[in-house]
Amino acid sequence: MSIASPSRPLSALAVLCAALGASGATLCVTPGRGKTCSHTIQAAVTAASPGDTVRVWPGQYHESVVISKSLSLIAVGPVIVDAAGLPNAIFVDGTHSPVSGVVVKGFTVENAQFEGILVVDGADITLVDNDVRHNDLNLNISSFTCPGLPAWETAEGEDCGEGIHLVGVANSVVVHNTVEENAGGILLSDETGPTHDNVISENKVAENPFDCGITLAGHPQAGTFGTPLGVYNNVVEANLSVHNGYQVPGAGAGVGIFAFIPHANMSGNVVSNNVLLRNGIPGVTLHLHAPDMNFDNIKIIHNFISGNGADEDPDALTPGTAGINIGGVSAMNGLIISKNKIWDEQSDVVLNLPSPVALHLNDLLGTGFGVQNLGSGTVNAVANWWGCVGGPGASGCSKVSSGVSYIPWLTSPVDLPIKGKKLGDHE
């Protein structure tokens, strides 16, 4: 399967191959006695020079690994980094000097107080084939707080930063990871710098009970509510995001893009070819909580969406369950919603915006509204398949609300193949 996208110059696979092709010395880590290998991962990382590779042999390591130089950290067989009682299992730390060219491959990371894998202020970072589970353990869900979370993480008290967190990160790849049973799944935010031009691809993100599967969020910097630095031009593609945000009402989308401060820049993000099932709020959810935001040129293309929940947010309230929900007080320009297949929802697409929206070539197969417009902007929904030849409102078809144009409609399904993560047992 090709994961190339015309929206970026290099595919995730090409970036990954380039990253894994780095040269340098090789250091080793073993959990037992030995004359040539380190006995902790951190000791080997500290001893390594930029460009080196640290190979970690099977075993369980109780530590919090901090990487602040270019290197490849590779698990050779089953390696568990147990961070019980520690902040993170693996921290790629560019806070003192931006870090680039780091690869983290093949680890199981678990039991951290906060994120399992945290990357701050970096570029050309590759996270691949890791199993990130059962982190965010300091979360106090009764008060939506995370005691001890660093002060710069300004809006993460309710989820302790989720399983994998990128902050101030550019041109990086998160691919083929499994992220399960954390507070939330994968988070991209901007407290320390803009997060842009990253690829989040072919990950399984499931059973994270308190937040979204994959989140792109504009957050304030510590001590200020000035303009967020931006989360833009990222690609979220071919992921399987299943049953996230289910334990707290209104908690988690399959993929969510959110901001709550004026002038936030969330533009140019692409959500494509994902399978989004049974999440706590709609499969793809966008919240524009403040005026004058830049959510322009967002693309929601070729996703498979079913069985998700309703949105309870006041700015984006849905009357029932929904597949795609976009709502708020800012206008959106250049929004594309196309070639999505949505079924088993009370409303396939719910829109509550002050600006016009166009959506075409979707299979809208829900039990109620194919498109429901709750905002002042008009909706152009021509050339969609509504579930039957007769078009919206005919027997066996989904319907439309006022403010939605739909003629002409398609008389056969778009019938989109699934190219990324398979539905499998989740169908």
Summarize the structure.
The chain is built from 2 helices and 38 strands.
Describe the fold and architecture:
There is one protein chain. By secondary structure, the chain is mainly β. The chain is 4% helix and 35% strand. It contains two helices and 38 strands. It has helices at 12-20, 41-47, and strands at residues 26-29, 52-56, 59-61, 65-67, 71-82, 90-93, 99-100, 103-110, 117-123, 126-128, 131-133, 164-170, 173-175, 178-180, 186-189, 195-196, 199-201, 204-206, 214-218, 231-232, 235-237, 240-242, 255-259, 270-272, 275-277, 284-288, 299-301, 304-306, 322-328, 336-338, 341-343, 347-352, 357-360, 363-365, 369-373, 379-380, 399-400, 404-405. The strands form three sheets. The protein has a 23-stranded parallel sheet that branches. Strands 4, 6, 7, 9, 12, 15, 19, 23, 26, 29, 32, 35 and 37 form a 13-stranded parallel sheet that branches. The longest helix is centred in the N-terminal third of the chain and has 9 residues, at 12-20. Residues 1-10 and 421-427 have low confidence and may be disordered.
